[in-house]
Amino acid sequence: MINAKGYAAHSKTDALQPWEFERREVGADDVLIDILYCGICHSDIHQVRSEWGPAIYPIVPGHEIVGRITAVGANVSKFKVGELAGIGCMVNSCQHCDSCDHGQEQFCDNKQTVWTYNSRDKDGSVTYGGYSNKIVCDQHFVLHVSDKLDLKGVAPLLCAGITTYSPLRKWKVGKGHKVGVLGLGGLGHMAVKFAVSFGAEVTMLSTSPSKEADAKRLGAHKFVLTKDPEQVKSLDRYFDFIIDTVSAPHDYNRYLQMLKTDGVQICVGLPPEPLSIAGNSLMRGNRVLTASSIGGIPETQEMLDYCAEHNITSDIELIDIKDVNTAYERVLKSDVKYRFVIDLATL
Amino acid sequence: MINAKGYAAHSKTDALQPWEFERREVGADDVLIDILYCGICHSDIHQVRSEWGPAIYPIVPGHEIVGRITAVGANVSKFKVGELAGIGCMVNSCQHCDSCDHGQEQFCDNKQTVWTYNSRDKDGSVTYGGYSNKIVCDQHFVLHVSDKLDLKGVAPLLCAGITTYSPLRKWKVGKGHKVGVLGLGGLGHMAVKFAVSFGAEVTMLSTSPSKEADAKRLGAHKFVLTKDPEQVKSLDRYFDFIIDTVSAPHDYNRYLQMLKTDGVQICVGLPPEPLSIAGNSLMRGNRVLTASSIGGIPETQEMLDYCAEHNITSDIELIDIKDVNTAYERVLKSDVKYRFVIDLATL
Asked: Which of A122, A276, B3, B145 lies at a 20 to 30 A Cα distance from A38?
């Protein structure tokens, strides 16, 4: 077994603290990665605190992982020792169903998607995430990472990046489209960068006037204060797409009404409470409401390659791992621009 | 002015009764149609009874109209006297906005869509519908009707037909797709006919075992009783599309769960109450919820031409106009296969 160090929570009320544990040996299809950086996703906090159902403790969170490969198994052809690599939200799946065959491992038909942490692998072992110095993973779920980009800013691409890239690609967002991005956080700031890069006119929709300068710096063409009824009114039937990154309850009908005929509201954050949707919000203009969850492995690779080619990374604040609990408190106050990334050299 | 006869309600509690009124003169862009048949749409009942807001009384309902042209204005090039013609839900719009220019007059950007009855035309006059012997209409909103089809069964195509045809075309439903049709009524039976004609595998989803034989006769390949949990369970992630024709409140999440990854639920009927949608119903499988309202004039013509080519009409029960009030009571009990059509020769 491989000795690993990390930070773990041991119950839903515990702070994260140093923990030593074992990773499995490097199997024939596995790679071993020395983790360099790991992003902090809001979902880490939900899971550490058992807010999405009971967690498997001890829990080592983290699914925005970049590092360097230090060993490969006998069957590994995809990677060589010394290469940079990334791991996102998944580390396994059945690998032979229709969804897996079509690169949608997150929707494995056999319900065998194995999440990077707080999940059970196919052998029954518990998965541990990226707040750690090492990780062993089946090569299929490991991504190539370019050395052209600042690695620290690459880590959040593995979740926040693919989560926004995937629906923008599915719906073919690009030149000539007007896109509204609702909420400027980890997901929102990536949605702005991608939509701008794809050629769309991008409007940041925010409740906070203080975000205007940053939205513009990230590339947004317009900024609309959603607390101002006049500004909101000017957006009646304005957008082709809205990327809704807000996971707190909010009025979906208000934003659906900003869509043109055939417009699409894509939720990448969702509250636990059911959405209340007026039939007319959809019927008037044949509008579309959808949601999108991460993206499959081939598309994640496509996204990383696109980012390398277009010099796109996440805006981050680098922290030492001892500050992870403070970082959590700041995430909950939306006090981060726009993703905390842990420097695992500090472990 | 042109003297017309029809059936009208004079208050929201009145039965429909004979009424004589005037239509406008045939203007330069108008055609005059002698109405032969008019379908009864459930929305006629809602409007006659002021269930969708206060109606403009007297109200002459009817927006599934076929007849023969008996006069044309000086500018009319699209029609000749003696030709068959149809009118659906709209009789006017601004005719120069982006939506109108793109054949989506039902979503006129200037909010000048004029409905066939219970609406005000651009000159302020009230519109009266097809429970009448004559109608005058701008040629742009008049459709060519083939003499190859049984005219009685063509009338409901002008609303029930286009309402189901349009979203099936928008979403490119065809060979290789699995389509569920929820509810077997006026809309549902047309959805089955079109989806089958487009090459999809069609499953009728119904609460009533008595509908199985008819669903199969209409072309449905499968029938699933939605009251049977075992049968419902077999549909987990089964469909590419669901056409939801039910306007009574029901559990949308149950049907969303029947959709594959990227599957689409298209509502062509909607309850007045807001829909309660669990975020996960959309997020799992990146599913899509949408609604669709009738269709524009060019697409309505395309649908009529398609029906003429493929011998598609609505299944109807022909009634005398004196029986319209009885027909309304039967519509409310879903006791019609599948559309009442009024023979205006009986007026």
From this structure: A122
